[in-house]
Amino acid sequence: MSSDLEKNQKYAEVIASKVKLTCKPVAMKLINGEDELPEGYELIGEKVRHCEMVRKASLGEKFYSTIEEQMCLGGAGAIGLRDMPEKLANGEKYLSLGRFKDLETAKSLTAKLSIVKDRYWGMIYAPLDEADFKADVIQVITEPVGGMKLAQSIVYATGDKINPSFAGIQSLCGDAFANPYIEGGVNFTLGCDGSRKAADIKDNEMTIGISAEKIDEVISGLESMA
């Protein structure tokens, strides 16, 4: 058994014992080429959204994706597999969907979205307890009470309040992957229309993205709290 798999199994065990999970935590890693794939990972056999891939991994599947398998171009842009589509980046798409009062307001928000700037070849997805690689980000889909426990685990060690960053847009891609990946932190998100419709994130679920830099602190906090 690899040391990464052992660590991830421990993380998964601690999270499951302390957090009210609705599915498995998901490990994700950006890669620069096929040579970086661990053994046993096959290309996902369909074209779906990033958030749908996260949901599939949360239900037990493991696989990898390149840009060719990413249906949602905004999601693929947020996680670093392509440039952000121009009409998403400039706010026009969200204005056309009735999300903003005018284009200036839409542009103000899209300029603040979390987007991985470097370009990668692909992404590996796996349930945390089966991931034999060091994840860039671990996502936990849970009810709000589980989010509370994870927030408490961070506060336990830092004494700082949580400052989540989300906008009801690009949740599992931007908020829960790109944000912790870029910031090296933890981010909480309430989902978006896309993830709730396409990835079946339930009305009573939220998602927390935990960076590689923060996972040990979160696990230690969970273990230490009463």
From TrEMBL:
Recorded superkingdom: Archaea
Protein name: Uncharacterized protein
Any Pfam family: DUF169
Protein source organism: Methanobrevibacter millerae
